[in-house]
Amino acid sequence: GGGAAVRAVLLALGDAPGSANLGEASLRQHRSNERNVFGEEPLDGMQPAYHVAPRVNWLNDPNGCELSDGQYRVAYQHNPTGPKWGDISWGVATSRDLVTWHRQPTILTTPRPEYETLGAWSGNVLDEEFLVYSCARALSGRGKTTDLCLADRHTGERYAHNPVLRAPEFARGDWRDPCPFHFGGKTYLLIGSTNERNEAVVVAVERRSRVEFAHVETPFFQLSSELIDDDYPRMFECPDVVQLSDEVYGLKLSVGPPKGYDVLIVGTVSDDSGAPVFKPFPLLKNKPESDVRCADLTPVKGQKALGKVVTLDCGGAYAAQSIKVLPASDQQQNYFFGWSSDQKGLAYNGALTLPRVLTLDSKKTLRYTFAPELAKLRSGESVDGHDDGDDDCALDLPRAWGNRFEVEWVVKVKYSTNHDEDEQAEPTRLRIRDTDNHVQLEASLDFTNRHKRLIAYLSTGRCQMRAVVSEYDDADDLLTVRLFADGSLFEWDLHDGLSACATRSYGHRKATLATLAVETPSSDAGVRCHSLRAWRIGGGASSSSSSPSSESS
């Protein structure tokens, strides 16, 4: 939401050197045959081409994500006047397949009414008629407040009688990012807030009629004060709720300063008190490590009190929002978009991540996988890796692919029962080299046996990923690592959604990525490269290039 104005922007530079202005040198690097998902030529080789983003200027949180009559519409926080936070409006894009996109006019922009002097901050689609968002305004003297406002879903025109509900007195300026939640035959809005004790909570607003809303006294989610320590978050941004099974819900929260990340808490919802209340499931005592998805990150200090918590992304993706199906029904998709910020000094800053799907599998394991529709991005047949004679794999990336491709790396792992607990060998490495044979990106893959489970660790730049692969046995396990590379943006998936990470890297901005090689240490007989494949992404002008684009920003 508007929290981007008050928290440090996450650059997620991965293995990149410090911030540098890419300038004209980078602009000259683009390949004239490249087209992005909007049918436009990327400004340079580092600008993501198959991610949703404005052509120029600023992007942050995804907003108003919906699927209606077979069409996806995604909005996002957007500054149409420059590549930094400010003058926040909503950029809009539409698609029929999550692959080919079309720009639509920017909405909720200037001129601004008096109740929205600081911008149209994050929100959602409410129903077939309205968008709902946080309208932010400056207070006389110092400070700000955010109220609840509506806009026409089709045109973006502001509701004539905004705001429809003022922020409660306890909110102290932090009460924002409304998300609709349908429960018990009623519609509520869940809002991230800070309570009177300066503690993070999620509160609810009840929709009484078409444009009438009322505060709900009972919080939707909070911890008891005795469970909160000094490191507990003071604000939950961008709350979202998805239904994972008949009675199981996932509450997604974006935890802000000093290090922003998205967490999902699994639990149930009851209305015993007359209002919906989220109750987390307790941690499983026999599997305390099974939900730790990021090797370097404990979601919050109050994790034991919060219960079953999963970090959705181990890198720089933030403020994820689910796609709402219209009209509202039980047939949710549980698709999410997140936000990845960019390096400073460019004409553009920010992109939405690739869509991911959140599911609860038959073993009650949460998976956060790339949307299956992304297979349509592949251009032509795959290039398959060859065995180099040492059970490793390698392949050459055609020069025409540039820095935009998908990789699937499958590793065969076998740890016998005679291995000691916590055994760890020298890591296997995936190295991506340029045409001068310089390593531009490296990922290391380690395995340990802990509590009779095989655990994988994937480390690359800012990404420190972790996944419990299987129960401990003598059988071979196949572990899959997937990577989407798109200019500076790299998105990883470890073992079919057991860990996810989006990160940035700029070290190859003056290079062309040319080879992929898997290097397995000879000392470890338990790990072998099973297969390595890559696909070109995009491959020139997309089918959207013949479609009119409503605007260039």
Any key phrases for this structure?
disordered N terminus, 553 residues, 7-stranded antiparallel β-sheet, 6-stranded mixed β-sheet, globular, mainly beta, 2 helices, disordered C terminus
Question: What this model shows, in words?
Answer:
The structure is a single chain. The protein has 553 residues and is mostly beta strands. It has two helices and 36 strands. It has helices at 23-27, 303-306; strands at residues 57-68, 71-79, 89-95, 101-107, 119-125, 130-138, 144-152, 175-183, 186-194, 200-207, 213-215, 236-243, 249-255, 261-270, 277-280, 309-311, 318-322, 324-326, 335-340, 348-349, 351-352, 356-360, 366-370, 378-384, 386-387, 393-396, 404-413, 428-434, 439-450, 453-460, 463-471, 477-486, 489-494, 499-504, 513-519, 527-537. The strands form seven sheets. Strands 25-26-35-28-29-30-31 form a seven-stranded antiparallel beta sheet, with no helix packed on it. Strands 1, 2, 3, 4, 18 and 20 form a six-stranded mixed beta sheet that branches. A hairpin with a 4-residue loop joins strand 28 and strand 29 (439-450). The longest helix has 5 residues, at 23-27. The radius of gyration is 23 Å and the shape is globular. Mean pLDDT is 83; it is low at 2-31 and 540-553.
**Count of extended strands:** 36
Mean pLDDT: 83
Q: What percent of the residues sit in helical stretches (DSSP H or I)? A: under 10%
- Total helices: the number is 2
Instruction: Look at the helices and sheets and give the structural class.
Output: mainly beta
Kindly estimate the percentage of residues that lie in beta strands according to DSSP.
35-45%
Taking the sheet with the most strands, its summary is:
7 strands, antiparallel
Low-confidence stretches: 2-31, 540-553
What overall form do the CA principal axes indicate? globular
Question: Cα distance, first to last residue?
Answer: 20 Å
Roughly how many Å is the radius of gyration? 23 Å
Task: Going across the biggest sheet, name each strand in turn.
Answer: 25-26-35-28-29-30-31
